[in-house]
Amino acid sequence: VRCQHYPPLRALQASAALRRASDEHKKEPWTSSSQQHFDSPPAGHQPEQEPQGPRPSYTGQGGQESEDYESEEQLQHRILTAALEFVPEHGWTAEAIAEGAKTLGLSVAAAGMFHSDGSELILHFVAECNTKLSELLEKEQKLVQLGEAEKKPIDEFLRHAVEARLRMLIPYIEKWPQALSVLLLPRNIPSSLNLLTSMIDDIWHYAGDQSTDFNWYTRRAVLTGIYNTTELVMMQDSSPDFEDTWRFLENRVADAMAMSSTASQVQSTGEAVVQGLMGAAVTVSN
Amino acid sequence: VYQVFESVAKKYDVMNDSMTLGIHRVWKDILMHKMNPSPGTLLLDVAGGTGDIAFRFINYVRSVRERQLQRKLKHQQNLSWQEIFESYQKDKFNSLGDSQVVVCDINREMLKVGKQKAQHLGYSEGLSWVLGNAEELPFDDDKFDVYTIAFGIRNVTRIDLALQEAYRVLKPGGRFLCLEFSHVSNPLLSRLYDLYSFQVIPVLGEVIAGDWKSYQYLVESIRRFPPQEELKAMIEDAGFFKVHYENLNFGIVAIHSGFKL
């Protein structure tokens, strides 16, 4: 029987020590000037100064909010982000997580916090990619609104969005099939399905309300199908820069568009037929 | 406590097998699986006298290391014959990957038995044997990756001190693992368990080890030991995070785990 428990607020010693250490080593000032400490992955870029949204439940209990405070979730987040760079070498495994923990100055035993099959690492990666995609689409939408860019027709938009998202897999493409199989484990299906559908919804949201004659469920299903099949094609694509994959994508999107016009054709034909029958019935009755 | 284990040391392993009908091996294997150590891990096994956990650790790390090396070799294509030859020389590659285990026990006799066992089974590298008290460990701060105490913490007089020491010697990110007899909640099983413990075990103790009293003490100390939730709270008080426990065999034994974050 496993037991989850959320302890009262306490400053995490390790993160305090790490922060002090990184103060000495990092060139850029790590301590942010804002009172709320924003925890961003320790890459070379400037930590953003905007305060993060509502923190996880830990802060609600009125604990000490010293600059060194970091919740367990944030630490786990950092470890997983650090672990990603070891994935090409070790795969999506606890080893990669252990190496990631090492780079943060933590013991390799910290990988024990996560499941030994690397599920959390993969889910973390997928969530990160989805976030990046949203940000990208958001930026482009702003450009369109400001009039600095043309609004893409729907098929081009979908192609662009799916391609951008799939390109994020390229650095990890060798080990991605392993990741896909882990995502399909019954234990992980709720989370992975959740991430997938929210990503698809996101793309449709930014695609805007263009008349496609699809209703909401059909749209979701169609794009999910396009995304999944393209992903699988990408796994065994060896053409330069994945040209074959993008061509496959183009064809699928075109199919989807054709399907919608076919559907509307069928509908109008159906209406015409019905009207004809009604007319005939009226004539006959007279 | 010292005297109990002095008399018990030589027959310790035999008694373990007969009392638990050999299941203790499975429990210890499960503990090792949970730990999932990667090569390069530094383990401190406290109250680990006869070395059961230490040997399992070495085996585990060795097999992980072998797999790692195999994978590395697979990746390296176009190996020259020279390189292939070299790769077969095990000395070149650290077969343990720099992993080490320090076995610490308060009782010299238990350590002696452990050392003999190690020699007998052929474990030479990566092992150290240290005499020490769990409430006051003879090690520096922030030294170890993993701290284990298997069936030892119930013999410690001040459990909170032992937990504090564990916290002290662990590196940031290090893991605390405790395997111990615990509370059975299922009432039917609890009755059977009590029956077995109080009727059968001391008799076995007398027959096999010639020592009724020690095993009476053992069974009573199990009953007096704090149950799962209480131990979990104590571990958290010592400063550990992400403290979980897992019941094995309906609570006869429980593994508690915590991290120094």
From TrEMBL, chain A:
A matching Pfam family: COQ9
This protein's name: Ubiquinone biosynthesis protein
Chief site of localization: mitochondrion
Composition bias, Basic and acidic residues: 20-29
Domain Ubiquinone biosynthesis protein COQ9 HTH: 72-102
Summary of the function given for this chain in its UniProt record: Membrane-associated protein that warps the membrane surface to access and bind aromatic isoprenes with high specificity, including ubiquinone (CoQ) isoprene intermediates and presents them directly to Coq7, therefore facilitating the Coq7-mediated hydroxylase step. Participates in the biosynthesis of coenzyme Q, also named ubiquinone, an essential lipid-soluble electron transporter for aerobic cellular respiration.
Domain COQ9 C-terminal residues, every copy: 189-259
Family membership: Belongs to the COQ9 family.
Subcellular location: Mitochondrion
One Gene Ontology molecular-function label: lipid binding
TM regions (residue ranges): none
Presence of keyword Nucleus: no
Pathway: Cofactor biosynthesis; ubiquinone biosynthesis
GO cellular component: a single term: mitochondrial inner membrane
Region (Disordered): 12-74
Native source species: Daphoenositta chrysoptera (varied sittella)
Entry keyword set: Lipid-binding, Mitochondrion, Transit peptide, Ubiquinone biosynthesis
InterPro entries with a match to the protein in the record: COQ9_C, COQ9_HTH, Ubiq_biosynth_COQ9
GO biological process: ubiquinone biosynthetic process
Keyword ATP-binding found: no
Quaternary structure annotation from Swiss-Prot or TrEMBL: Homodimer. Heterodimer; two heterodimers of COQ7:COQ9 come together on the same side of the lipid pseudo-bilayer and form a curved tetramer with a hydrophobic surface suitable for membrane interaction. These two tetramers assemble into a soluble octamer with a pseudo-bilayer of lipids captured within. Interacts with COQ7; this interaction allows ubiquinone (CoQ) isoprene intermediates presentation to COQ7 and facilitates the COQ7-mediated hydroxylase step.
TrEMBL record, chain B:
SUPFAM superfamilies referenced in this protein's UniProt entry, alphabetically: S-adenosyl-L-methionine-dependent methyltransferases
Keyword Protease included in the entry's annotation: no
Keyword Thylakoid on entry: no
NCBIfam families: MenG_MenH_UbiE
Entry-linked Pfam families: Ubie_methyltran
Alphabetical GO biological process terms: methylation
Quaternary structure, from the entry: Component of a multi-subunit COQ enzyme complex, composed of at least COQ3, COQ4, COQ5, COQ6, COQ7 and COQ9. Interacts with PYURF; the interaction is direct, stabilizes COQ5 protein and associates PYURF with COQ enzyme complex.
Matches recorded under PANTHER family: 2-METHOXY-6-POLYPRENYL-1,4-BENZOQUINOL METHYLASE, MITOCHONDRIAL (PTHR43591:SF24), METHYLTRANSFERASE (PTHR43591)
The protein, known as: COQ5 protein
Name of the gene: Coq5
Recorded GO MF terms: 2-methoxy-6-polyprenyl-1,4-benzoquinol methyltransferase activity
Function per UniProt: Methyltransferase required for the conversion of 2-decaprenyl-6-methoxy-1,4-benzoquinol (DDMQH2) to 2-decaprenyl-3-methyl-6-methoxy-1,4-benzoquinol (DMQH2).
Record key words, sorted: Methyltransferase, S-adenosyl-L-methionine, Transferase, Ubiquinone biosynthesis
